[in-house]
């Protein structure tokens, strides 16, 4: 699953865009450098019933921003992303993507 697909699924399961979840994370103090990935994993499990893979994809965005390495961009594998920039404002507003 690509990073963007993880974020889309997180949106589907929580009802919030990744950007909105970043604001929730900040409100919980998870935007601090001392926050550990395990904190986000526990939060996602407890509040949303999401597993480690989804939490770690979000942790990546929370801790390092929306730009990802181009390792899988343009490949044909299951983990490919279309861009090095992840869309955080929701599936329905992503340019060129169908809502749903």
UniProtKB/TrEMBL annotation:
InterPro entries: DUF4287
A Pfam family it matches: DUF4287
Top-rank taxon: Bacteria
Protein name as annotated: DUF4287 domain-containing protein
């Amino acid at each position: 699953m690509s990073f963007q697909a993880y974020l889309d699924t997180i949106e589907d399961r929580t009802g919030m865009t990744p950007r909105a979840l970043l604001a929730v994370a900040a409100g919980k103090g998870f935007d601090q450098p001392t926050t550990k990935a395990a904190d986000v994993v526990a939060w996602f499990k407890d509040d949303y019933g999401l597993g480690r893979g989804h939490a770690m994809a979000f942790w990546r965005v929370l801790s390092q921003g929306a730009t990802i390495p181009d390792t899988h961009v343009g490949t044909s594998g299951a983990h490919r992303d279309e861009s090095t920039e992840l869309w955080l404002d929701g599936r329905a507003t992503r340019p060129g993507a169908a809502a749903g």
